[in-house]
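Title: [Solved] ABC transporter permease 3D structure

Original question kept below for reference.
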Amino acid sequence: MRGRLASTALTLLGLLVLTFFIGRVMPVDPVLALVGPDADASMYKEAAARLGVDQPVWVQFGRYIAELGSGNLGTSLLTGNAVTADIARVFPATVELATLAIVLGALAGVPLGVFAATRRGGLGDNVVRVISLSGYSVPVFWFGMMGLLVFYAWLGWVGGSGRIALEYDGVVPRATGLLLVDTALAGNWAAFGNAVKHITLPACILGLHSMAFISRMTRSFMLAQLSQEYVLTARVKGLPEWRVVWQHAFRNILVQLLTIVALAYGGLLEGAVLIETVYAWPGFGQYLTNSLLLGDMNAVMGCVLIVGIIFVTLNLVSDALYKIFDPRMK
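Solution (posted by the thread starter after getting help):
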């Protein structure tokens, strides 16, 4: 346990060091972004001293680590708010979107992968492989724009940009930051329906991307199991094919699938920026991108730390689930 905690701390520290020093060599001047290009030299120096960027890099990093130890991620240049407050504000929107997307992706991707593996080389296998290849290789932002054009502009089946229509914005009290949950808790079913209409399309597009990855990996894992001798033995004994596939072969890939789904979920939490940009979704990815373009390193470092914690946590959860699904891991 101590070794795992030490490894986790070193991983996060290495991530912070790398991000901090890359941020200092980026061709973006945070001082200039703060004071503007028309500021004189004295104003520039005053702003640099206030931000602390006039000190040596190692001094800046030490100061940042000291502040981090007290739970302070600094102040964002982009919003003027504490980075912790900004992340707490935008992160639930991404969690809600990514969670729905990974649920849709897993519910579709796992059965499709199993279906393709059991029909290797056949028409069904080829169809699933084409769908997976398209979902994985076609740019997400293209799917996003085409989705808006077809399902919003032409058919009117879904909502437009943002998380909810303007007439419902601010009507529901913020309890969890998850709009579907907050509207349901408030009993405002009109707002809930409107939030569903807005989240459906971006979640389905992200879910398609996840489905492509999950189905491909499920197919590969199942093909490896279906070629094993225990599967042949089960078939020779006369077991129904569905029991051979789902009760024998599929059970042996659950541990691998847990890792795949966890990694896909972590990727959605920190990599949904393109969909958030297309749909004006006020989430974590959009906040990180805007901060990076402005050279707001306090916000960037805070976001990177959160991303690192997410992946470390998902790995720890996966390890715990391994012991549940595979007793041999104990």
